[in-house]
Amino acid sequence: MKEIKPRICINATVRIPGSKSITHRSAIAASLAMGESTIQGFLHCEDTLYTISVLKELGVEMSIGGESLKVEGAGGMRAPVPTSKEFYVGNSGTSLRLLLSIVSLARGEFILTGSPRMLKRPIGDLVVALNQLGVEASCVAENDFPPVLVRARGIKGGKVTISGEKSSQYVSSLLLSGPYAEREVEIEVTGGLISSSYVDITLEVMRQFGIPVTCDGYRYFRIPAGNGYRARQFLVEGDISSASYFWAAAAVTGGMVTTENIHPYTTQQGDIGFLQVLEEMGCGIERQTDRVTIRGRALSGIEVDMCTMPDLVPTLAAISLFANGKTSIRNVPQLRHKESDRLSSIALEWGGLGARVEELADGLIIHGGGRLSGGAVEAYDDHRLAMSLAVVGLKVPGIKIRDENCVNKSFPGFWQLWDRL
Questions:
Q1: Which of 257, 258, 291, 267 is nearest to 204 (CA)?
Q2: What is the pTM of this model?
Q3: Which positions are annotated as active-site residues?
Q4: Domains 2-17+237-419 and 20-235 agree in fold
Q5: Cβ–Cβ contacts within 10 Å for residue 131, how many?
């Protein structure tokens, strides 16, 4: 159990580790390329290690040295795997969803599975989409949920229609595998695409590894056949989701925090929009080429659509406790299918501290400025809840976080950096 020490007027500089989303995608692209790639700024955490483990089991040679990952690409995963394999990815939804299409490129019989929570996170739309592309895949136990069985013989290609209303990772998965299908892949997205900024990250990684994709907004994508990723040196920029907790520390304490390795003018990470949210709440923001500085001031509640940056809802929920008035967070129903049901978890734990929180079908209303009291709080094995509760503890004495090591999922060094504030 981790007890958080309250602080006032923090003044700190923190270097933010590499982006989890970019690390997953660049490791996959490098694995599919022919030749040696080096990925600098590699994020060494539970989720990315699950992805690396599966890629190694598929025959990719990889070695990790500090923040560097060397990859000897397999040229499209076409080599047969002699025995059937089960791949366990814990509660890494990114690993399971992105790798499901990648595994389909191989030759062999595979089962992708995970933790009990992972088995409750939907995957059926992606399975159906792969069926449309000629892949023999099926949900083993319960329709729409892992485990997933893949009898892999490559991806034939063609046209596929998929809903974008549950997860953008389904589209990213199809995009990443698309260059190695037997024929051109066309993806038509119906119903709008949630968390579309993560598809922007996927497209940018593909572009840097030599694959252009034809797009019509977020409704249509075309990946030509016959092109493969090109091995290269690749640099992973800092993770904006991880930076957000340190921005929040400045916001709630009235202090100043500079986060290095954040590139506000060039990043494809949609979470960079959180800077505008903080500005609207009253914070001072200084943007530079490779860093961002936040200055905390008096905070005011706002109304905000967080669909493009859902991972930052817990961070915003923590800040909102100390803002004047109410903060309305909308359009994030996908948070019910994350490492925990984040909307329900936040409403329950924040409420236990004395906060007035209204849980909506697609969001939260948090009434700031109330009297709060500390105590033991549950993170529900959810890294983003644990780190957001650390923000609350800067202002509310006596916050003790159960299962604090769940932060290793995305940010293993978090507590060391936090304790230095």
A1: 267
A2: 0.96
A3: 311
A4: yes
A5: 13
CA distance 409 to 380: 13
The Cα–Cα gap between 402 and 82 comes to 43
Map out the domains of the chain as residue ranges: 2-17+237-419, 20-235
What span, in angstroms and rounded, lies between the C-alpha atoms of 186 and 189? 10
Q: Any idea which architecture 20-235 has in CATH?
A: Alpha-beta prism (3.65)
The Cα-based distances of 284 to 247, 280, 295, 320, 372 in angstroms read: 11, 10, 5, 16, 26
Which parts of 254-382 fold into alpha helices (H)?
Answer: 274-281, 313-320, 342-352
Q: Which CATH superfamily is domain 2-17+237-419 in?
A: Enolpyruvate transferase domain (3.65.10.10)
For residue 127, give both structure tokens.
């399975």
Query: How many CB atoms sit inside 10 A of residue 416's CB?
Result: 8
Digit-coded pLDDT (tens) for 75-131: 888 777 778 999 999 999 999 999 999 999 999 999 999 999 999 999 999 999 999
User: Residue 253 and residue 394: Cα distance in Å, rounded?
Assistant: 7
Which H/E stretch holds residue 294?
strand 291-295
In the chain, the amino acid numbered 44 is H
